[in-house]
Design a protein that fits this description.
two-stranded antiparallel ribbon; 2 strands; 78% helix; mainly alpha
């Protein structure tokens, strides 16, 4: 039979694994420019945050966070598929052909330079998160969770600076908000606050889905008119 100490140790191990998962999913959101992979990383991030919150708050609130995150990812995916982003798999470099009969994807001429630049940015962000966690530790959360909070907030801000496309910048904004929630939820774990934060996340997801739909449909409409 499990004793209380064994259960606490198990939750601590799960928390540490969740923080590692948060670091990995944040890195993917910075490095990868494919919206499908970004949405998968965002979904994994919500699951990892839920695992971390299992030790810091009640299981019900952790489950709400995961379910809201899954709903957000589903909304973004459906908006992308219905607005043509499934055709424009690399929407940030997609161009309408001069004939207007089809849509072609222009490959990045220097993909490794882009990846190397993003890897450098990711490394600098990680070092900054480590330094902030050491110099300005967040109150009432373990040091590894504080690192995860700083990491998510910095990753989200950096993604917003690196891209303007909704399906890539949107997950960055949601990631920054998730980092704040990871810090704030253990401090204020009432259901009212949890539902208010969930509503903010869902409204942001609706706005991102709308922008993604509009931007995804524009190239298709231009191609059909030519």
């Amino acid at each position: 039979m499990f004793e209380v100490g064994d259960l606490e140790r198990l939750l601590e191990i799960m928390r540490e694994g969740g923080v590692v998962g948060v670091l990995i999913t944040g890195a993917l959101i910075i490095l990868v420019r494919d919206w499908r992979v970004t949405l998968l990383a965002l979904l994994g991030q919500y699951v990892m945050v839920g695992i971390v919150l299992l030790q810091l708050t009640s299981p019900e609130i952790a489950l709400i966070k995961v379910l809201v995150g899954a709903l957000i990812c589903l909304m973004l995916y459906l908006a992308a598929r219905q607005s043509g982003w499934g055709v424009l798999s690399r929407a940030d470099v997609a161009l309408v052909t001069s004939s207007g009969d089809s849509i072609s994807n222009e490959r990045d001429p220097l993909p490794w330079i882009s990846i190397a630049f993003r890897a450098l940015v990711m490394s600098l962000v990680f070092v900054l998160a480590l330094q902030l966690g050491r110099d300005y530790p967040l109150p009432d959360v373990p040091p590894d969770v504080g690192l995860g909070c700083y990491w998510l907030m910095l990753v989200g801000l950096m993604v917003l600076m690196l891209t303007e496309w909704p399906l890539l910048a949107g997950p960055g904004l949601l990631t920054a908000l998730t980092g704040f929630e990871l810090f704030y939820t253990p401090l204020e774990s009432s259901l009212i606050v949890t539902f208010l934060l969930a509503m903010v996340n869902l409204l942001l997801a609706v706005a991102i889905s709308y922008l993604a739909a509009v931007q995804g449909l524009n190239p298709l409409r231009e191609g059909s008119r030519d």
